[in-house]
Amino acid sequence: xxxxxxxxxxxxxxxxxxxxxxxxxxxxxxxxxxxxxxxxxxxxxxxxxxxxxxxxxxxxxxxxxxxxxxxxxxxxxxxxxxxxxxxxxxxxxxxxxxxxxxxxxxxxxxxxxxxxxxxxxxxxxxxxxxxxxxxxxxxxxxxxxxxxxxxxxxxxxxxxxxxxxxxxxxxxxxxxxxxxxxxxxxxxxxxxxxxxxxxxxxxxxxxxxxxxxxxxxxxxxxxxxxxxxxxxxxxxxxxxxxxxxxxxxxxxxxxxxxxxxxxxxxxxxxxxxxxxxxxxxxxxxxxxxxxxxxxxxxxxxxxxxxxxxxxxxx
Length: 314
Fold this sequence. Notes:
With 314 residues, the protein is α+β, with helices and mostly antiparallel strands. The chain folds into 2 domains: 31-135 and 156-178 and 188-222, ABC-type transport auxiliary lipoprotein component (Rossmann fold, 3-Layer(aba) Sandwich); 226-311, Thrombin, subunit H. 29% of the residues lie in helices and 36% in strands. The strands form 3 sheets. Strands 1, 2, 3, 4, 5 and 6 form a 6-stranded mixed β-sheet that branches. A hairpin with a 6-residue loop joins strand 10 (261-263) and strand 11 (270-273). Helix 3 (67-84) packs across helix 6 (199-222). The protein is elongated and about 85 Å long.
């Protein structure tokens, strides 16, 4: 009897050692904090209006899950870009409505032609598309005498592209691979049995996104801000960007012709536009609608619908 108690005491001691060592070695993975890039501190980025962009639902090309995985990845990226404060993100409901009305597939499979069409309707300068090329959940169970340990790990690889809506050209392409792991321990069959943790997937997606987030932000921040004239009524000029975009009363905008499209002789795709001739300048005097502004000319003439407007740094 004494011998049996002695064996049990040793076994329990070993269990405690395994628990302590296992917990001490368990990695803690809080959401990574991405530092603010130097480009974001540039005066041009700090003073100009916010770049308006749309993030389309990513395509899930992995063998795991369904389209909801792509939706989750797009939502995470949208949130991370919004937190930077330099961008205006179009709401998903509005994107969905535009794509449905135009019979466009709302996924990362959007091609340059679709992107340019949707971008003009959404009033954005760039569209971000992407895909989940790899996603897997790994589960390992280990028995240590009276202790059972489960290790769950999610791994994800995400591809991302930025498409210029004016030309359909891919401005930026990158990928990121991330993972997230969680351990659970059960002693003497006590405690709740641990099943699959759904938050693992989102954490792995977030980890993958942070791998390319800085490069993506730099590319977007380097894009010249521009908007379009939506209508002209005598001395009033209506612009498709306003208070939400970061414009202020008194801001000066330069008006330019759209420029002629330049076509690649081989691919027959539009690769850019000729520099538009300046028509003059105007000043913001009020706002209207969800994100529109009204300006009056202060120099030049001949302003018309679809003319390009750019921000004049004070």
